[in-house]
Amino acid sequence: MKKALVRIFVALVLAGAGAIAWAMRFPEIAPIAKPDAAKFDKELVKRGEKLAGLGNCHVCHTKPGGKEFAGGLALPTPFGTIHTTNITPDVETGIGSWSEQAFIRAMHEGVDRHGRNLYPAFPFDYYSKVTEADLKAIYAFLMSRPAVSQKPTDNSLAFPFNIRLLLAGWNFLFHEKGEFKPDPSKDAEWNRGAYLVEGLGHCGACHTPRNMFGAAPKSGTNVYAGAVAEGWYVPPLNASTPAPIPWTAKALVNYLIDGWDGHHGIAAGPMTAVATDLYEQSEDDVFAIAAYVMSIKGGPRPQAEQEKITTEALATATKLEWGHPEAPPVPNDPVMQKGAKVFEAQCSTCHKQGGKPAPLGLATVLYAPDASNLILATFKGIQPPRGVLDRSMPPREAQISDDEMTALATFIRARFTKKPAWTGTEALVKKIRSGAH
Ligand code: HEC
Ligand code: HEC
Ligand code: HEC
Fold first, then answer.
1. Of all atoms in ligand 1, which is nearest to the CA of residue 205?
2. Cα separation of 71 and 68, whole Å?
3. 389: number of Cβ within 10 Å
4. Which residues surround ligand 2 with Cβ inside 6 Å?
5. Mean pLDDT of successive 10-residue segments in the chain (437 residues)?
6. 376 closest CA partner among 301, 428, 337, 334
Protein backbone atom coordinates (compact mmCIF):
# COMPACT_ATOMS: atom_id res chain seq x y z
CA MET A 1 0.00 0.00 0.00
CA LYS A 2 2.73 2.44 1.03
CA LYS A 3 4.72 1.43 -2.04
CA ALA A 4 1.70 2.10 -4.26
CA LEU A 5 1.23 5.57 -2.74
CA VAL A 6 4.88 6.39 -3.23
CA ARG A 7 4.59 5.30 -6.86
CA ILE A 8 1.53 7.50 -7.41
CA PHE A 9 3.30 10.43 -5.77
CA VAL A 10 6.38 9.89 -7.92
CA ALA A 11 4.23 9.70 -11.03
CA LEU A 12 2.29 12.88 -10.17
CA VAL A 13 5.42 14.92 -9.50
CA LEU A 14 6.97 13.68 -12.71
CA ALA A 15 3.76 14.37 -14.63
CA GLY A 16 3.70 17.96 -13.36
CA ALA A 17 7.33 18.53 -14.23
CA GLY A 18 6.70 16.63 -17.47
CA ALA A 19 4.08 19.17 -18.47
CA ILE A 20 6.63 21.95 -18.03
CA ALA A 21 9.26 19.98 -19.89
CA TRP A 22 6.77 19.25 -22.69
CA ALA A 23 6.95 22.89 -23.61
CA MET A 24 10.69 22.46 -24.10
CA ARG A 25 10.60 19.08 -25.87
CA PHE A 26 13.21 18.04 -28.39
CA PRO A 27 12.64 17.96 -32.17
CA GLU A 28 13.52 14.97 -34.33
CA ILE A 29 16.97 15.09 -35.91
CA ALA A 30 16.80 14.03 -39.58
CA PRO A 31 18.17 10.57 -40.43
CA ILE A 32 21.38 10.37 -42.42
CA ALA A 33 22.72 7.75 -44.81
CA LYS A 34 24.91 5.30 -42.89
CA PRO A 35 28.40 6.86 -42.67
CA ASP A 36 31.18 5.12 -44.58
CA ALA A 37 33.31 3.40 -41.92
CA ALA A 38 36.47 3.85 -44.01
CA LYS A 39 36.11 7.64 -43.90
CA PHE A 40 36.76 7.95 -40.16
CA ASP A 41 40.27 8.83 -39.08
CA LYS A 42 41.99 5.69 -37.72
CA GLU A 43 43.50 7.50 -34.75
CA LEU A 44 40.12 8.97 -33.83
CA VAL A 45 38.53 5.51 -33.98
CA LYS A 46 41.25 4.10 -31.72
CA ARG A 47 40.77 6.89 -29.22
CA GLY A 48 37.02 6.29 -29.34
CA GLU A 49 37.50 2.60 -28.59
CA LYS A 50 39.44 3.45 -25.41
CA LEU A 51 36.86 6.00 -24.34
CA ALA A 52 34.00 3.56 -24.98
CA GLY A 53 35.86 1.13 -22.70
CA LEU A 54 36.01 3.75 -19.97
CA GLY A 55 32.27 4.24 -20.32
CA ASN A 56 31.64 0.45 -20.20
CA CYS A 57 29.31 0.81 -23.20
CA HIS A 58 29.71 -2.84 -24.22
CA VAL A 59 28.89 -4.05 -20.68
CA CYS A 60 25.30 -2.81 -20.88
CA HIS A 61 24.81 -2.88 -24.64
CA THR A 62 25.59 -6.60 -25.02
CA LYS A 63 23.30 -9.40 -23.86
CA PRO A 64 24.77 -12.66 -22.54
CA GLY A 65 25.98 -14.63 -25.57
CA GLY A 66 24.93 -11.80 -27.89
CA LYS A 67 26.86 -9.70 -30.40
CA GLU A 68 28.81 -6.81 -28.94
CA PHE A 69 26.96 -3.46 -28.81
CA ALA A 70 23.78 -5.01 -30.28
CA GLY A 71 21.87 -4.48 -27.01
CA GLY A 72 19.11 -6.61 -25.51
CA LEU A 73 20.51 -6.84 -21.97
CA ALA A 74 17.69 -6.72 -19.40
CA LEU A 75 18.24 -4.19 -16.61
CA PRO A 76 15.87 -4.64 -13.68
CA THR A 77 14.86 -1.36 -11.99
CA PRO A 78 12.33 -0.67 -9.20
CA PHE A 79 9.99 0.55 -11.96
CA GLY A 80 10.22 -2.52 -14.19
CA THR A 81 12.68 -4.05 -16.65
CA ILE A 82 14.48 -1.91 -19.23
CA HIS A 83 16.35 -3.40 -22.17
CA THR A 84 19.42 -1.84 -23.70
CA THR A 85 19.28 -0.74 -27.32
CA ASN A 86 21.34 -1.68 -30.36
CA ILE A 87 24.16 0.86 -30.78
CA THR A 88 25.79 -0.79 -33.80
CA PRO A 89 25.51 1.17 -37.08
CA ASP A 90 22.61 -0.94 -38.39
CA VAL A 91 20.14 1.43 -40.05
CA GLU A 92 16.95 -0.47 -39.20
CA THR A 93 17.61 -1.66 -35.64
CA GLY A 94 20.64 0.32 -34.48
CA ILE A 95 21.98 3.87 -34.77
CA GLY A 96 23.16 3.66 -38.40
CA SER A 97 21.01 6.62 -39.41
CA TRP A 98 22.11 8.79 -36.48
CA SER A 99 24.18 11.86 -37.23
CA GLU A 100 27.03 12.84 -34.94
CA GLN A 101 24.79 15.60 -33.65
CA ALA A 102 22.00 13.12 -32.78
CA PHE A 103 24.50 10.92 -30.94
CA ILE A 104 25.95 13.82 -28.96
CA ARG A 105 22.44 14.98 -28.06
CA ALA A 106 21.56 11.49 -26.78
CA MET A 107 24.68 11.40 -24.60
CA HIS A 108 24.25 14.94 -23.29
CA GLU A 109 20.48 15.25 -23.00
CA GLY A 110 19.14 11.69 -22.72
CA VAL A 111 16.98 12.03 -25.83
CA ASP A 112 16.99 9.72 -28.87
CA ARG A 113 17.16 10.78 -32.53
CA HIS A 114 13.38 11.05 -32.71
CA GLY A 115 13.33 13.37 -29.69
CA ARG A 116 11.98 10.74 -27.28
CA ASN A 117 13.29 10.81 -23.74
CA LEU A 118 15.53 7.95 -22.67
CA TYR A 119 15.39 6.19 -19.32
CA PRO A 120 18.14 7.11 -16.86
CA ALA A 121 19.10 3.41 -16.64
CA PHE A 122 21.24 4.78 -19.48
CA PRO A 123 23.64 6.88 -17.36
CA PHE A 124 23.40 9.98 -19.55
CA ASP A 125 23.28 12.06 -16.38
CA TYR A 126 27.02 11.21 -16.14
CA TYR A 127 27.84 11.09 -19.85
CA SER A 128 26.51 14.63 -20.19
CA LYS A 129 29.78 15.76 -18.57
CA VAL A 130 31.83 14.31 -21.45
CA THR A 131 33.30 16.78 -23.96
CA GLU A 132 32.04 16.90 -27.54
CA ALA A 133 35.53 16.01 -28.77
CA ASP A 134 35.51 12.75 -26.76
CA LEU A 135 31.94 11.94 -27.87
CA LYS A 136 32.94 12.45 -31.51
CA ALA A 137 35.68 9.85 -31.03
CA ILE A 138 33.19 7.37 -29.51
CA TYR A 139 30.80 8.04 -32.39
CA ALA A 140 33.56 7.35 -34.93
CA PHE A 141 34.41 4.10 -33.13
CA LEU A 142 30.80 2.87 -32.94
CA MET A 143 30.06 3.83 -36.54
CA SER A 144 33.09 1.99 -37.88
CA ARG A 145 32.08 -1.30 -36.24
CA PRO A 146 30.10 -4.00 -38.05
CA ALA A 147 26.35 -3.36 -38.22
CA VAL A 148 24.32 -6.02 -36.40
CA SER A 149 20.65 -6.44 -37.16
CA GLN A 150 18.95 -7.06 -33.81
CA LYS A 151 15.66 -5.47 -32.79
CA PRO A 152 15.70 -4.01 -29.27
CA THR A 153 13.55 -6.03 -26.84
CA ASP A 154 10.43 -4.23 -25.63
CA ASN A 155 10.61 -2.87 -22.10
CA SER A 156 8.26 -4.19 -19.45
CA LEU A 157 7.61 -1.20 -17.25
CA ALA A 158 4.61 -0.76 -14.99
CA PHE A 159 2.11 1.98 -15.84
CA PRO A 160 2.71 4.96 -15.58
CA PHE A 161 6.48 4.49 -15.93
CA ASN A 162 6.07 3.20 -19.48
CA ILE A 163 5.15 6.75 -20.54
CA ARG A 164 8.36 8.27 -21.85
CA LEU A 165 6.99 11.77 -21.54
CA LEU A 166 7.23 11.46 -17.74
CA LEU A 167 10.97 11.25 -18.27
CA ALA A 168 10.90 14.80 -19.54
CA GLY A 169 9.86 15.61 -15.96
CA TRP A 170 12.70 13.52 -14.58
CA ASN A 171 15.08 15.30 -16.88
CA PHE A 172 13.74 18.68 -15.82
CA LEU A 173 14.05 17.87 -12.10
CA PHE A 174 17.28 15.91 -11.89
CA HIS A 175 19.42 16.28 -14.98
CA GLU A 176 22.22 18.79 -14.39
CA LYS A 177 23.25 19.62 -17.92
CA GLY A 178 26.59 20.89 -19.11
CA GLU A 179 30.01 19.46 -19.81
CA PHE A 180 32.53 19.08 -17.01
CA LYS A 181 34.14 22.34 -15.91
CA PRO A 182 37.65 22.06 -14.46
CA ASP A 183 38.20 23.48 -10.99
CA PRO A 184 41.09 25.97 -11.34
CA SER A 185 41.93 25.62 -7.63
CA LYS A 186 42.86 21.94 -8.20
CA ASP A 187 45.76 20.44 -10.13
CA ALA A 188 45.59 18.84 -13.57
CA GLU A 189 45.58 15.26 -12.23
CA TRP A 190 42.63 15.91 -9.93
CA ASN A 191 40.70 17.59 -12.74
CA ARG A 192 41.40 14.72 -15.13
CA GLY A 193 40.23 12.25 -12.45
CA ALA A 194 37.10 14.26 -11.72
CA TYR A 195 36.30 14.42 -15.44
CA LEU A 196 36.63 10.63 -15.78
CA VAL A 197 34.82 9.67 -12.55
CA GLU A 198 31.94 12.15 -12.90
CA GLY A 199 31.67 11.59 -16.65
CA LEU A 200 32.44 8.50 -18.70
CA GLY A 201 33.36 6.39 -15.65
CA HIS A 202 29.86 7.02 -14.16
CA CYS A 203 31.13 5.59 -10.84
CA GLY A 204 28.26 7.26 -8.99
CA ALA A 205 25.68 5.38 -11.06
CA CYS A 206 26.50 2.42 -8.80
CA HIS A 207 28.25 4.00 -5.79
CA THR A 208 25.66 6.73 -5.05
CA PRO A 209 22.27 5.72 -3.59
CA ARG A 210 19.33 6.66 -5.82
CA ASN A 211 16.35 8.63 -4.55
CA MET A 212 12.75 7.47 -4.97
CA PHE A 213 12.78 8.84 -8.51
CA GLY A 214 15.70 6.62 -9.43
CA ALA A 215 18.04 9.62 -9.62
CA ALA A 216 21.57 9.57 -8.19
CA PRO A 217 22.34 12.99 -6.66
CA LYS A 218 25.57 14.64 -7.84
CA SER A 219 26.14 16.74 -4.73
CA GLY A 220 25.31 16.53 -1.02
CA THR A 221 26.14 14.05 1.72
CA ASN A 222 24.71 11.03 -0.10
CA VAL A 223 27.09 11.26 -3.03
CA TYR A 224 29.26 8.12 -3.17
CA ALA A 225 27.74 6.92 0.12
CA GLY A 226 27.35 3.33 -1.14
CA ALA A 227 24.34 1.64 -2.69
CA VAL A 228 23.06 -1.55 -4.27
CA ALA A 229 23.62 -2.53 -7.92
CA GLU A 230 22.24 -5.67 -9.53
CA GLY A 231 21.61 -7.05 -6.05
CA TRP A 232 25.23 -6.47 -4.99
CA TYR A 233 26.14 -4.21 -2.11
CA VAL A 234 28.28 -1.38 -3.49
CA PRO A 235 30.65 0.03 -0.82
CA PRO A 236 30.89 3.79 -0.28
CA LEU A 237 33.68 5.64 -2.05
CA ASN A 238 33.58 8.46 0.50
CA ALA A 239 34.95 8.56 4.05
CA SER A 240 32.17 6.28 5.32
CA THR A 241 33.76 3.16 3.79
CA PRO A 242 33.79 0.22 6.20
CA ALA A 243 37.06 -1.13 4.71
CA PRO A 244 39.20 -2.19 7.70
CA ILE A 245 42.37 -0.76 6.10
CA PRO A 246 41.84 2.81 4.87
CA TRP A 247 42.29 3.15 1.11
CA THR A 248 45.41 4.82 -0.27
CA ALA A 249 45.96 6.08 -3.82
CA LYS A 250 48.35 3.18 -4.41
CA ALA A 251 45.82 0.57 -3.23
CA LEU A 252 43.15 2.19 -5.43
CA VAL A 253 45.40 2.02 -8.48
CA ASN A 254 46.07 -1.71 -7.83
CA TYR A 255 42.38 -2.40 -7.29
CA LEU A 256 41.19 -0.41 -10.30
CA ILE A 257 43.79 -1.64 -12.81
CA ASP A 258 44.26 -5.24 -11.69
CA GLY A 259 40.94 -5.67 -9.92
CA TRP A 260 42.74 -6.77 -6.76
CA ASP A 261 44.73 -5.31 -3.90
CA GLY A 262 46.41 -7.27 -1.10
CA HIS A 263 44.81 -5.10 1.59
CA HIS A 264 41.31 -5.16 0.10
CA GLY A 265 40.80 -8.23 -2.05
CA ILE A 266 38.99 -8.47 -5.35
CA ALA A 267 36.67 -6.43 -7.56
CA ALA A 268 33.80 -8.93 -7.74
CA GLY A 269 30.24 -8.76 -9.11
CA PRO A 270 29.39 -5.69 -11.20
CA MET A 271 32.79 -4.15 -10.32
CA THR A 272 34.61 -6.87 -12.30
CA ALA A 273 33.73 -5.41 -15.71
CA VAL A 274 34.73 -1.93 -14.53
CA ALA A 275 38.19 -3.16 -13.48
CA THR A 276 38.58 -5.21 -16.66
CA ASP A 277 37.87 -2.10 -18.74
CA LEU A 278 40.25 0.02 -16.64
CA TYR A 279 42.99 -2.56 -17.26
CA GLU A 280 42.99 -1.36 -20.88
CA GLN A 281 43.27 2.34 -19.97
CA SER A 282 46.42 4.42 -19.59
CA GLU A 283 48.04 4.27 -16.16
CA ASP A 284 48.00 8.05 -15.98
CA ASP A 285 44.23 8.05 -16.26
CA VAL A 286 43.83 5.43 -13.52
CA PHE A 287 46.23 7.38 -11.27
CA ALA A 288 44.06 10.45 -11.92
CA ILE A 289 40.91 8.49 -11.00
CA ALA A 290 42.61 7.33 -7.79
CA ALA A 291 43.68 10.89 -6.94
CA TYR A 292 40.12 12.12 -7.35
CA VAL A 293 38.63 9.22 -5.36
CA MET A 294 41.11 9.93 -2.56
CA SER A 295 39.80 13.51 -2.43
CA ILE A 296 36.23 12.15 -2.17
CA LYS A 297 37.45 10.23 0.86
CA GLY A 298 38.79 13.42 2.37
CA GLY A 299 42.41 12.86 1.40
CA PRO A 300 45.04 10.47 2.73
CA ARG A 301 45.58 10.01 6.46
CA PRO A 302 48.88 11.10 7.99
CA GLN A 303 51.42 8.43 7.04
CA ALA A 304 52.18 7.29 10.59
CA GLU A 305 48.49 6.80 11.35
CA GLN A 306 47.93 4.92 8.08
CA GLU A 307 50.86 2.61 8.83
CA LYS A 308 49.65 1.93 12.37
CA ILE A 309 46.10 1.03 11.31
CA THR A 310 47.39 -1.09 8.43
CA THR A 311 49.82 -3.08 10.59
CA GLU A 312 47.20 -3.71 13.26
CA ALA A 313 44.41 -4.64 10.83
CA LEU A 314 46.73 -6.98 8.92
CA ALA A 315 47.87 -8.70 12.13
CA THR A 316 44.29 -9.10 13.37
CA ALA A 317 43.01 -10.43 10.04
CA THR A 318 45.95 -12.84 9.70
CA LYS A 319 45.38 -14.32 13.17
CA LEU A 320 41.74 -15.01 12.29
CA GLU A 321 42.64 -17.03 9.19
CA TRP A 322 41.69 -20.68 9.17
CA GLY A 323 44.46 -22.86 10.59
CA HIS A 324 46.39 -20.01 12.24
CA PRO A 325 47.86 -21.26 15.55
CA GLU A 326 46.40 -18.25 17.40
CA ALA A 327 43.00 -18.47 15.70
CA PRO A 328 40.04 -18.41 18.11
CA PRO A 329 38.10 -21.65 18.72
CA VAL A 330 34.68 -22.04 17.09
CA PRO A 331 32.04 -21.04 19.66
CA ASN A 332 30.04 -23.88 21.14
CA ASP A 333 26.80 -22.95 19.39
CA PRO A 334 25.01 -25.20 16.90
CA VAL A 335 24.80 -22.57 14.12
CA MET A 336 28.46 -21.56 14.51
CA GLN A 337 29.53 -25.21 14.59
CA LYS A 338 27.55 -25.92 11.44
CA GLY A 339 28.87 -22.82 9.65
CA ALA A 340 32.46 -23.66 10.60
CA LYS A 341 32.02 -27.20 9.28
CA VAL A 342 30.83 -25.90 5.92
CA PHE A 343 33.67 -23.38 5.89
CA GLU A 344 36.25 -26.07 6.57
CA ALA A 345 34.83 -28.35 3.88
CA GLN A 346 34.13 -25.82 1.12
CA CYS A 347 36.19 -22.70 1.70
CA SER A 348 39.30 -23.46 3.74
CA THR A 349 41.23 -25.04 0.88
CA CYS A 350 41.81 -21.44 -0.31
CA HIS A 351 40.76 -19.18 2.56
CA LYS A 352 43.35 -20.27 5.12
CA GLN A 353 46.53 -19.08 6.75
CA GLY A 354 49.08 -18.49 3.98
CA GLY A 355 46.40 -19.09 1.32
CA LYS A 356 46.31 -17.18 -1.93
CA PRO A 357 43.34 -14.84 -1.34
CA ALA A 358 43.78 -11.73 0.82
CA PRO A 359 42.78 -12.49 4.45
CA LEU A 360 38.96 -12.66 4.61
CA GLY A 361 38.98 -10.27 7.58
CA LEU A 362 40.07 -7.50 5.16
CA ALA A 363 37.24 -8.01 2.66
CA THR A 364 34.99 -4.93 2.75
CA VAL A 365 31.96 -7.04 1.90
CA LEU A 366 32.04 -8.77 5.30
CA TYR A 367 31.45 -5.34 6.89
CA ALA A 368 28.45 -4.65 4.64
CA PRO A 369 24.99 -4.08 6.15
CA ASP A 370 23.86 -7.51 4.91
CA ALA A 371 25.25 -10.76 3.56
CA SER A 372 24.36 -10.11 -0.14
CA ASN A 373 27.84 -10.13 -1.62
CA LEU A 374 29.03 -13.04 0.50
CA ILE A 375 26.04 -15.14 -0.59
CA LEU A 376 26.29 -14.03 -4.24
CA ALA A 377 30.03 -14.74 -4.37
CA THR A 378 29.51 -18.16 -2.74
CA PHE A 379 26.63 -19.15 -5.03
CA LYS A 380 27.92 -17.74 -8.31
CA GLY A 381 31.66 -17.92 -7.65
CA ILE A 382 34.09 -15.24 -8.82
CA GLN A 383 35.16 -14.81 -12.43
CA PRO A 384 38.06 -12.48 -11.81
CA PRO A 385 38.82 -9.28 -13.69
CA ARG A 386 41.34 -9.22 -16.53
CA GLY A 387 44.34 -8.22 -14.41
CA VAL A 388 44.18 -11.18 -11.98
CA LEU A 389 42.84 -14.11 -14.01
CA ASP A 390 44.35 -16.59 -11.54
CA ARG A 391 42.06 -15.46 -8.72
CA SER A 392 38.87 -17.31 -9.44
CA MET A 393 36.50 -18.89 -6.97
CA PRO A 394 34.23 -21.80 -7.92
CA PRO A 395 30.41 -21.45 -7.75
CA ARG A 396 28.88 -23.43 -4.87
CA GLU A 397 25.16 -22.93 -5.36
CA ALA A 398 24.56 -26.61 -6.12
CA GLN A 399 26.74 -27.87 -3.24
CA ILE A 400 25.31 -25.78 -0.43
CA SER A 401 21.81 -25.89 1.12
CA ASP A 402 19.93 -22.81 2.34
CA ASP A 403 20.55 -23.79 5.98
CA GLU A 404 24.24 -24.33 5.35
CA MET A 405 24.58 -20.98 3.57
CA THR A 406 22.82 -19.18 6.42
CA ALA A 407 25.02 -20.85 9.04
CA LEU A 408 28.13 -20.18 6.93
CA ALA A 409 27.32 -16.46 6.61
CA THR A 410 26.58 -16.21 10.33
CA PHE A 411 29.85 -17.91 11.18
CA ILE A 412 31.96 -15.85 8.75
CA ARG A 413 30.59 -12.53 9.99
CA ALA A 414 31.23 -13.51 13.64
CA ARG A 415 34.66 -14.98 12.98
CA PHE A 416 36.21 -12.36 10.73
CA THR A 417 34.65 -9.10 11.95
CA LYS A 418 33.69 -7.51 15.26
CA LYS A 419 30.41 -6.30 13.78
CA PRO A 420 27.00 -7.37 15.14
CA ALA A 421 25.42 -10.43 13.50
CA TRP A 422 23.63 -9.85 10.19
CA THR A 423 19.85 -9.98 10.35
CA GLY A 424 17.53 -11.37 7.70
CA THR A 425 20.19 -13.72 6.32
CA GLU A 426 17.88 -16.75 6.05
CA ALA A 427 15.35 -14.84 3.93
CA LEU A 428 18.13 -13.28 1.86
CA VAL A 429 19.61 -16.71 1.05
CA LYS A 430 16.19 -17.89 -0.19
CA LYS A 431 15.65 -14.72 -2.21
CA ILE A 432 19.03 -14.92 -3.90
CA ARG A 433 18.54 -18.65 -4.61
CA SER A 434 15.17 -17.94 -6.25
CA GLY A 435 16.70 -15.24 -8.45
CA ALA A 436 14.31 -12.60 -7.10
CA HIS A 437 17.09 -10.57 -5.44
C1 HEC B 1 24.36 1.05 -17.15
C2 HEC B 1 24.01 0.59 -18.47
C3 HEC B 1 24.44 1.39 -19.68
C4 HEC B 1 25.71 1.80 -20.02
C5 HEC B 1 26.99 1.61 -19.23
C6 HEC B 1 25.59 2.44 -21.30
N7 HEC B 1 24.29 2.45 -21.72
FE8 HEC B 1 23.60 3.24 -23.48
N9 HEC B 1 21.69 2.78 -22.89
C10 HEC B 1 21.35 2.03 -21.80
C11 HEC B 1 19.91 1.81 -21.81
C12 HEC B 1 19.11 1.05 -20.76
C13 HEC B 1 19.41 2.45 -22.95
C14 HEC B 1 17.96 2.52 -23.41
C15 HEC B 1 17.22 3.58 -22.68
C16 HEC B 1 15.78 3.68 -23.11
O17 HEC B 1 15.27 2.76 -23.77
O18 HEC B 1 15.16 4.68 -22.77
C19 HEC B 1 20.55 3.06 -23.61
C20 HEC B 1 20.47 3.83 -24.76
C21 HEC B 1 21.56 4.37 -25.43
C22 HEC B 1 21.46 5.17 -26.62
C23 HEC B 1 20.17 5.55 -27.35
C24 HEC B 1 19.97 4.54 -28.45
C25 HEC B 1 18.61 4.49 -29.07
O26 HEC B 1 18.45 3.72 -30.02
O27 HEC B 1 17.69 5.17 -28.60
C28 HEC B 1 22.74 5.47 -27.00
C29 HEC B 1 23.16 6.29 -28.21
C30 HEC B 1 23.62 4.88 -26.03
N31 HEC B 1 22.88 4.22 -25.09
C32 HEC B 1 24.99 4.96 -26.09
C33 HEC B 1 25.84 4.49 -25.09
C34 HEC B 1 27.28 4.69 -25.10
C35 HEC B 1 28.06 5.36 -26.19
C36 HEC B 1 27.74 4.15 -23.92
C37 HEC B 1 29.16 4.16 -23.38
C38 HEC B 1 29.81 5.45 -23.29
C39 HEC B 1 26.58 3.60 -23.21
N40 HEC B 1 25.46 3.83 -23.95
C41 HEC B 1 26.66 2.98 -21.99
C42 HEC B 1 22.18 1.57 -20.81
C43 HEC B 1 23.56 1.80 -20.76
C1 HEC C 1 28.17 -1.32 -12.37
C2 HEC C 1 28.31 -0.83 -11.03
C3 HEC C 1 29.62 -0.19 -10.64
C4 HEC C 1 30.29 0.83 -11.28
C5 HEC C 1 29.90 1.55 -12.55
C6 HEC C 1 31.45 1.11 -10.46
N7 HEC C 1 31.48 0.29 -9.37
FE8 HEC C 1 32.96 0.22 -7.97
N9 HEC C 1 32.04 -1.35 -7.04
C10 HEC C 1 30.86 -1.93 -7.45
C11 HEC C 1 30.59 -3.10 -6.62
C12 HEC C 1 29.41 -4.03 -6.72
C13 HEC C 1 31.66 -3.20 -5.70
C14 HEC C 1 31.87 -4.30 -4.64
C15 HEC C 1 32.77 -5.37 -5.23
C16 HEC C 1 32.91 -6.65 -4.42
O17 HEC C 1 31.96 -7.12 -3.81
O18 HEC C 1 34.04 -7.21 -4.44
C19 HEC C 1 32.55 -2.08 -5.99
C20 HEC C 1 33.73 -1.82 -5.30
C21 HEC C 1 34.55 -0.74 -5.53
C22 HEC C 1 35.69 -0.39 -4.72
C23 HEC C 1 36.15 -1.13 -3.46
C24 HEC C 1 35.52 -0.47 -2.26
C25 HEC C 1 35.85 -1.12 -0.95
O26 HEC C 1 35.86 -0.42 0.06
O27 HEC C 1 36.09 -2.35 -0.92
C28 HEC C 1 36.25 0.73 -5.28
C29 HEC C 1 37.46 1.48 -4.76
C30 HEC C 1 35.45 1.09 -6.43
N31 HEC C 1 34.43 0.17 -6.56
C32 HEC C 1 35.70 2.18 -7.25
C33 HEC C 1 34.98 2.48 -8.40
C34 HEC C 1 35.32 3.54 -9.32
C35 HEC C 1 36.47 4.51 -9.14
C36 HEC C 1 34.39 3.49 -10.33
C37 HEC C 1 34.32 4.34 -11.57
C38 HEC C 1 35.52 4.33 -12.40
C39 HEC C 1 33.47 2.41 -10.01
N40 HEC C 1 33.86 1.82 -8.84
C41 HEC C 1 32.38 2.08 -10.80
C42 HEC C 1 30.05 -1.50 -8.50
C43 HEC C 1 30.39 -0.52 -9.43
C1 HEC D 1 39.48 -22.28 -5.15
C2 HEC D 1 39.74 -21.31 -4.13
C3 HEC D 1 38.56 -20.72 -3.38
C4 HEC D 1 37.56 -21.38 -2.70
C5 HEC D 1 37.34 -22.86 -2.55
C6 HEC D 1 36.74 -20.35 -2.09
N7 HEC D 1 37.22 -19.12 -2.41
FE8 HEC D 1 36.47 -17.33 -1.81
N9 HEC D 1 37.81 -16.36 -2.94
C10 HEC D 1 38.84 -16.97 -3.64
C11 HEC D 1 39.59 -15.94 -4.33
C12 HEC D 1 40.82 -16.18 -5.21
C13 HEC D 1 38.98 -14.72 -4.02
C14 HEC D 1 39.39 -13.32 -4.51
C15 HEC D 1 40.04 -12.55 -3.39
C16 HEC D 1 41.54 -12.63 -3.34
O17 HEC D 1 42.18 -13.36 -4.14
O18 HEC D 1 42.10 -11.94 -2.48
C19 HEC D 1 37.87 -15.02 -3.13
C20 HEC D 1 37.04 -14.04 -2.59
C21 HEC D 1 36.06 -14.29 -1.67
C22 HEC D 1 35.24 -13.26 -1.04
C23 HEC D 1 35.24 -11.77 -1.34
C24 HEC D 1 34.10 -11.49 -2.30
C25 HEC D 1 33.87 -10.04 -2.72
O26 HEC D 1 32.70 -9.73 -3.07
O27 HEC D 1 34.79 -9.22 -2.73
C28 HEC D 1 34.42 -13.92 -0.15
C29 HEC D 1 33.40 -13.27 0.75
C30 HEC D 1 34.71 -15.35 -0.26
N31 HEC D 1 35.71 -15.52 -1.19
C32 HEC D 1 34.09 -16.33 0.46
C33 HEC D 1 34.23 -17.69 0.21
C34 HEC D 1 33.43 -18.70 0.82
C35 HEC D 1 32.33 -18.44 1.82
C36 HEC D 1 33.86 -19.91 0.32
C37 HEC D 1 33.32 -21.27 0.63
C38 HEC D 1 31.95 -21.51 0.35
C39 HEC D 1 34.93 -19.63 -0.60
N40 HEC D 1 35.14 -18.28 -0.65
C41 HEC D 1 35.64 -20.59 -1.31
C42 HEC D 1 39.12 -18.30 -3.72
C43 HEC D 1 38.33 -19.30 -3.19
1. 1
2. 8
3. 11
4. 197, 201-203, 205-207, 229, 232, 234-235, 237, 241, 243, 252, 255-256, 264, 266-271, 274, 289, 293, 364-365, 373
5. 74 78 82 95 98 98 97 91 97 98 98 95 97 98 97 89 85 91 97 98 97 91 96 97 97 98 98 98 98 96 97 98 97 97 98 97 98 98 98 97 98 98 98 92
6. 428
